[in-house]
Amino acid sequence: MRALRRLGVAAVAAALLVPTLASCDSEPTGVTAAKNPPPAPPAQTLELTPAAETKDLPVSTEIGLTATNAAVRSVHVADAKGKLVAGRMRPDGTTWVPEKPLQYKTAYTVTAVATDGRRAVTSQTSFTTMPEPQRQVGTGMYLFDDHTYGVAMPVVVEFSEQIPESARAAVEKRLFVETTPPQPGVWHWMSGRQVTYRAPQYWKPGTKLTVRAALKGVPMGEGRYGDDDRRAAAKITDEKLELVVRNSDKHIDVLRNGKKVKSMPVSLGKASTPSSSGTMVIMDKQASTIFDTTGEPGDQYRVAIQYAQRLTWGGEFIHSAPWSVGDQGRRNVSHGCLNVSPGNAVWLFENTHVGDPVTVKGTGVKLEKGNGFTAWDLSWKEFVKGSALPIPDELRPEAVNPPVSSASPSPSPSAAPGVAPSAVPAPSAMSPTPAAR
């Protein structure tokens, strides 16, 4: 009986002990839920620009998007008839860019959606574009659809009027270049009327270039707007061809993929009309042309020229010069051009491309910036200083490895979208084209 009593007491004690031990480790589930509810999901927001009902906007207007705790998933822009406008986001996700210029005097509605993967937020806005402006700046691009260019071919955009510094960043932001394979680059303002794009090194052979100068309706200062939206898709040659001209021994070396394949004698500009030293680019090729300096200062002449390849706006060419064959490789007798024999002129004409680099050394006269396609006459450190936009960290001179000075012909080798008539693009009507020398 005592034993039973003792067992009963022990059982009661054990029964009392169990809940006491459990209460030291945790509280009942119901209590926990009441004291610590799950956190509310973060609020999602999606703000759009332009503000609703904004009027008289340029036809270059982009849709700005600021999403909080969500990612933009879709943007739909439609005109008053419900017709959708094609476009795409910039890589940084800040704005949506129409694939073509908007229409003048047209109302548009915007519907955008952002989501965190579980919930979505929708935002809308609307705006109306301006009438066609009276003052428009002419634009042109030295890149032509379906053409093949040399590895030093820059992308060059020109303007019929000066673009003030205050408007250059906005203009530059509307210039898109895509390369395959990727080779990011930077724009450089050679002057208020010309901006040039290149990568740190020459394009890789076989590169595909897709360029869009989306300038129609872009404000360009002083109440002026861009006149057109231009595009081009071109290719870089499958080989790297470079010409190196030495005044010291008056020879041209032709390098193919870094290896010398030909050397030929040359006569450069005489003392009173010296050739320029620096890295130029073949800009134009003409099998037959006329050099005419009548009415200009200096020597007056009008002569038929064969196999001419333009290097500068100032009139420096590589061309056939049968009259100076005896001087080639010995003395300089030209008006600034690079004179070669008829046979060598034919060989060069058949083997070179618009866009091939030509580096002249030792004449004592430096190539003038902007006198031709002079992007490669600048070191990368100098080139990036000409951009109106901040330079991406990976393209800063200290980050480019190895640092490249394109004035040297040795080592040689950004992101959405020109114009074209002939297989050999002639200089733009906007550009000065003095007679050759």
Automatic annotation (TrEMBL):
<keyword id="KW-0732">Signal</keyword>
<dbReference type="GO" id="GO:0005576">
    <property type="term" value="C:extracellular region"/>
</dbReference>
<keyword id="KW-0808">Transferase</keyword>
<dbReference type="GO" id="GO:0008360">
    <property type="term" value="P:regulation of cell shape"/>
</dbReference>
<dbReference type="InterPro" id="IPR050979">
    <property type="entry name" value="LD-transpeptidase"/>
</dbReference>
<dbReference type="Pfam" id="PF17964">
    <property type="entry name" value="Big_10"/>
</dbReference>
<dbReference type="GO" id="GO:0016746">
    <property type="term" value="F:acyltransferase activity"/>
</dbReference>
<keyword id="KW-0133">Cell shape</keyword>
<keyword id="KW-0012">Acyltransferase</keyword>
<protein>
    <recommendedName>
        <fullName>L,D-TPase catalytic domain-containing protein</fullName>
    </recommendedName>
</protein>
<feature type="signal peptide">
    <location>
        <begin position="1"/>
        <end position="24"/>
    </location>
</feature>
<dbReference type="GO" id="GO:0018104">
    <property type="term" value="P:peptidoglycan-protein cross-linking"/>
</dbReference>
<dbReference type="Pfam" id="PF03734">
    <property type="entry name" value="YkuD"/>
</dbReference>
<feature type="active site" description="Proton donor/acceptor">
    <location>
        <position position="319"/>
    </location>
</feature>
<dbReference type="GO" id="GO:0071972">
    <property type="term" value="F:peptidoglycan L,D-transpeptidase activity"/>
</dbReference>
<keyword id="KW-0573">Peptidoglycan synthesis</keyword>
<dbReference type="InterPro" id="IPR038063">
    <property type="entry name" value="Transpep_catalytic_dom"/>
</dbReference>
<keyword id="KW-0961">Cell wall biogenesis/degradation</keyword>
<dbReference type="InterPro" id="IPR005490">
    <property type="entry name" value="LD_TPept_cat_dom"/>
</dbReference>
<dbReference type="InterPro" id="IPR041280">
    <property type="entry name" value="Big_10"/>
</dbReference>
<feature type="region of interest" description="Disordered">
    <location>
        <begin position="393"/>
        <end position="437"/>
    </location>
</feature>
<comment type="pathway">
    <text>Cell wall biogenesis; peptidoglycan biosynthesis.</text>
</comment>
<feature type="compositionally biased region" description="Low complexity">
    <location>
        <begin position="398"/>
        <end position="437"/>
    </location>
</feature>
<dbReference type="GO" id="GO:0071555">
    <property type="term" value="P:cell wall organization"/>
</dbReference>
<feature type="domain" description="L,D-TPase catalytic">
    <location>
        <begin position="241"/>
        <end position="361"/>
    </location>
</feature>
<feature type="active site" description="Nucleophile">
    <location>
        <position position="337"/>
    </location>
</feature>
